[in-house]
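Good morning,

Both structures are done.
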Amino acid sequence: MTESLKSQLRNVGFDVTGEIRDAVSSLGIFINPKDIQRGQSGNPMQCTTAQCLRRAIDSKHARVAVFLSTAYVQIPGVSHVRRYQVPTNLRRDVIIPQDEGTEIMPGDYILRAPSASFRLGQAAERRERLRKLREEGKKPPMSRRIGPTKRNIRIRWQRTT
C-alpha cells in the first residue's frame, strides 16, 4: 500500500525518499481571496488549498498536494511527507467548486490529523483480521449502525390487496 502511495506522490512531484507519516496535530488554515486568485483547477499541487497551505506553513518551496480526502505536505529539508485528512466542508466549499469552475468563498478550515480508522495501514489490518476470521469459519463482527436501531416503526399507510 505504501509503495503505491509513494509512486502516486512521485508522479505529482514529491521526493519520497523518506516515509509517509500521519500528522500528529491538526493544522488550521484561512483561505483568502489571493489564494483563490492564484489557485488552478484540476492541479492538486497548485489548487487554492495548496496555495493556502504553502502560505500557512510559511514556505514557498514546500511540496503540497491536496486531493479530495487527503492532503500531503513536504517541507524542504525534511525527508518525510506529512498526511492530513481533508474535512468535508473544505471539500464541499473549495475543492469541488474550484474543479467545477464555480465561485469559492474565503474562510477558515482545519486539516485534521487522520482519525484512527483513517491512519495508514488500518485498512490492511482490518482486511487481515477479516481474512483470519473467515479462515477460522467465524462470521465477521456486525458493523456499527448510526442512530437508533431498535425502535418501533409505525406504518402510516398500508397497501391492501
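Second structure follows.
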Amino acid sequence: MPSNFGRLGAQYLDMASNDTAIRIGRAAEMLGVSVDTLRRWERAGRIQMLRSAGGQRVVPLDAVARLVAEQRLEGADRQIAAQSARNRFAGIVTRVEQDRVAAVVEVLAGPHRLVSLMTAEAVDELNLRVGDEVVCVVKATNVIVEVAAGRDRA
C-alpha cells in the first residue's frame, strides 16, 4: 500500500473485489453536488471516503444512501413559496388503501370526492390516515365535458 495514504491506510479499498463503493464523480452526480462539495464534506466530517487500489477517492454506497435520505428530509421540511397549480381543494381523507407498491387515497373536499393514485411509499412518508386534513392539488391537462342524454341541441 502506498505510504502517501497516511491515516487512510486502514480505509484502502481494492475496487476490483468490492462493489460497495463508487467513484467520487458518480457519487457527486447521484447527490446533485460537485466533486469539490464532496471533498469539502469529507474535510468537515460529513462523509467518509476510501481509496481505491489505484489511489482514487471512492465513496461507500451506504454513505451516499444516507446523504440522499438527508436531502429528502430537508426537502420535505421546506415551505412551499408558490406554485402554478390553481385548483386546490382542502378536505378530509376518507379512505386509504395500499399494498406493497401502490395506494388509493380518497378525499372528501366539500361536495367533491377526489381520488389520488400514488405510491405506497408516498402514503407512508406523508403518514396519511383516515380523518387527516389535507389539500389536494389538481393539475389536469385534459378536461372532458359531457351533456345529458336527450337534451335539445337546437
